[in-house]
Amino acid sequence: MTKVPAYAAASATSPLGPHTVERREPGPHDVHIDILYCGICHSDIHQVRDEWGGSMFPMVPGHEIVGRVKAVGAHVKKFKVGDMAGVGCMVDSCRECDPCSHDLEQFCQKGAAFTYNGTEMDRKTPTYGGYSTQVVVDERFVLKVPEGLDPAGAAPLLCAGITTYSPLRQWNCKKGDKVGVVGLGGLGHMAVKLAASMGAEVTMLSTSKAKEADARKLGAHAFALTSDESTFEKLAGRFDLIINTISAPHDYNKYLGMLRPMGAMVVVGAPPAPTPVHAMSLIFGNKRLAGSLIGGIAETQEMLDYCGKHDIVSEVEVIPAAKINEAYERMLKGDVRYRFVIDCASLKGA
Ligand SMILES: [Zn+2]
Ligand SMILES: [Zn+2]
C-alpha cells in the first residue's frame, strides 16, 4: 500500500479538507497514475452532501482524472510509463453480464465499481476518487488521453464530455442537423462544442441573455431565450435533437414542442422531483423522450480520440485544492465558466 495525500469530506455536513488515502500496490493488470488534474463535477457536490442518500465517508470525490502513468503491472499492454492517461466515473465492473459484454459497463447488472463513494468489485474495499495525487486502476478502465490535448482542459471530458458525446452519437448527430442545447453549464458547453464539431446547426436555449456571447464563442449558431414564452412558438417543430442539461425544475412539454416529427429530446440533467409529461406531447409528432448516463469504456475512448482529432477540450478554471470548498459555493451560484479543475500538484504537502 502507498499512502497518498488527498482532499476528503469527513461527513455530509463538513467542508472538505486534507486527508490521506491508501492506494494498492499495482497488480499485474494495474496502471499506477500520477494525477495531474481532476475536474469538479456537480455530482461531487450531491454526493459529498449526501443528497442522493447512501454516501460513504470519508469521501474523496473526483471522477474526471487526467495524469501520467507512473508504473504498470507486468501484463499491462495498453500503457507504458509516461503515457497520458484518464480515469472517468468507473474503475471496474463484473465484465461478464449482458450490459458489460455490450460495452455498457455503467449499467453492469452487479453494479459497476464507481470511482468514488463506492466499493471495488469485492464490495468491501472503498473507492477514492481523483481529489488526490495518485490512483491505481485496472488497465481496462483506464483511458488513453491524446497527447495533443491540454491535460487540464481534457479532465472534464471524462464525465461532462462523455455525458454529452454519447447522446449525440446515439441519435446520430450529423452535418446539417438542427440541435438545441438547453442550459449553458459544464454539460451544456460541451454539448455545444461537440454538436457544432459534428456539423450540426446548434441553438443555445437559455434563460440568461448574458450567456449569448459565450454560447456563440463556443460554436452555437443561434441563441434563444427560454424565459420569453414566444420562443417556444417561434421554434415549434424546429429541432431534430434537443440535449437537455438542466437539473432545475422545468416543463418538458414545452421543449418537446420544439422537436420536429420523429425528433428526440435526451435528458442528461436530473431535476429533483418528477416532471409531468403529457402523452400528447409525445404522440403528436412521434416524439421521443430519452435519457443517457455517461458512456461505456469503449465509447469514452472513442470520445477522447474524437476530441484529440478535433482539438476539443473543456473551458476550465484551474484551482488549488485549498479552493475546493469555495469552488463548490461558486458552482451552486452558477459562477463558473465552465468547469473547475483541481491542480493536484497543490495536494502535495497539503
Ligand atoms: Zn460527473
Ligand atoms: Zn457487469
Mean pLDDT: 97
Class based on secondary structure composition and strand pairing: alpha/beta
- Overall form: globular
Which radius of gyration do the C-alpha atoms yield? 20 Å
Kindly estimate the percentage of residues that lie in beta strands according to DSSP.
Answer: 25-35%
Bound molecules: zinc ion
Q: Describe the sheet with the most strands.
A: 7 strands, mixed
Q: How far apart are the first and last residues' alpha carbons, in Å? A: 20 Å
Q: What's the number of extended β-strand segments? A: 19
**Low-confidence runs (pLDDT<50, min 5 residues)?**
none
Helix content: 10-25%
Number of helices: 11
* H/E element order: EEEHEEEHEEEEEHHEHEHEHEHEHEHEHE
Describe it for me?
Helix 5 (186-197) links the parallel strand 12 (178-182) and strand 13 (201-206). The mean pLDDT is 97. Strands 3, 4, 5, 10, 11, 18 and 19 form a seven-stranded mixed sheet that branches. Strands 14-13-12-15-16-17 form a six-stranded parallel sheet, with helices on one face. The chain has a two-stranded antiparallel sheet with strand order 1-2. It has 350 residues and is an alpha/beta fold. Helix 4 crosses helix 5 (186-197) and helix 4 (160-170) packs across helix 10 (297-310). The protein has helices at 42-48, 98-101, 151-154, 160-170, 186-197, 212-218, 230-234, 252-256, 279-283, 297-310, 324-332; strands at residues 2-9, 16-23, 30-39, 65-72, 84-87, 90-92, 113-114, 118-119, 126-127, 134-138, 143-144, 178-182, 201-206, 222-225, 239-244, 259-267, 288-291, 316-319, 339-343. The chain is built from eleven helices and 19 strands. 24% of the residues lie in helices and 28% in strands. The protein binds zinc ion (2 copies). One zinc ion binds next to loops.
